[in-house]
Amino acid sequence: MCGVLYFKGDSRKHKELIISLLNESRIRGLHAFGVSLRPSSEDDFQTMRTFDLPAAIDYIQANQFVELIGHCRYDTSGDWREINNNQPIVIGNSILAFNGVVRMSTKEEYEAEFQREYTTANDGEIVLRMFAEEGGAGTEKLLQESRVTFAGVLRVNGRTLALRNSGRPLWIAEDKGVKFVFSTLDIFKRAVRSVPHPEKYALMDHHEVPPMEVQWL
Fold first, then answer.
1. Closest residue by Cα to residue 122 from 49, 214, 18
2. Rounded Cα distance, 191 and 178, in Å
3. Distance between CA atoms of 35 and 71, rounded to whole angstroms?
4. What are the φ/ψ torsions at residue 132 (nearest 5 degrees)?
């Protein structure tokens, strides 16, 4: 169980809610925290990972951005005390924050299974590399396996998407010029209630991302 967060819009207008969403997501993972920010549409993402939630919040407070991919980790693969095993996972220009289990085997075992080497010991890298290198068909086949549970936000080939299978929840709320993705509807409701002027978010449309559907963000 992990917390996934995505934001797209003008951070200056919604920073209180972004921070509230990250804070509410902490109940889904207290091992480590991470944030990838895109300062402007012309910039690449920049990533920080930490073992301290206040440090992640301070990072958000200190920056302006047009996209954010955030994560609160509950460790299921790879030693969380090794900071590079935590999320968002960054491989070149590809980024992933996800909730779920792809393989319960060791890194060495799933490297042998998939016949490739991985940079981290986080099994989410299997999905990230497969989508970036092979596209959606191979990823869909993997996520259809009964032992795989997955819900996440990926940045691949210059585009961002939300992707899940039936094993994990993921929700979207959007309005003119702003979009949020988050792990559970309750997280969003609690986050909205805790910000100034919550009524401005009351009419945001939200719906569950259908199983196996790629939602480009």
1. 49
2. 16
3. 7
4. -65, -35
The arithmetic mean of pLDDT across residues 167-189, rounded, is 93
Model confidence pLDDT, tens digit, residues 130-176:
999 887 788 989 999 989 999 999 999 999 999 999 999 999 999 98
Within 10 Å of residue 135's Cβ, how many Cβ atoms?
A: 12
Amino acid at 128: L
The CATH code of the domain at 3-216 is: 3.60.20.10
- How far, in Å, CA of 128 to CA of 94, rounded? 7
How far is it, in rounded angstroms, from Cα 29 to Cα 68? 18
Q: Please say if the pLDDT value at position 11 is more than 90.
A: yes
Tokens 């996520």 -> residue: 143
- Neighbour count for residue 188 (Cβ, 10 Å): 24
Biggest CA-to-CA distance, the chain? 53
CB of 86 within 8 A of CB of 122? Answer: yes
In the chain, domain spans: 3-216
Q: What is the pTM of this model?
A: 0.95
| Contact criterion met (CB below 8 Å) for 114 and 108 | no
pLDDT at 53: 95
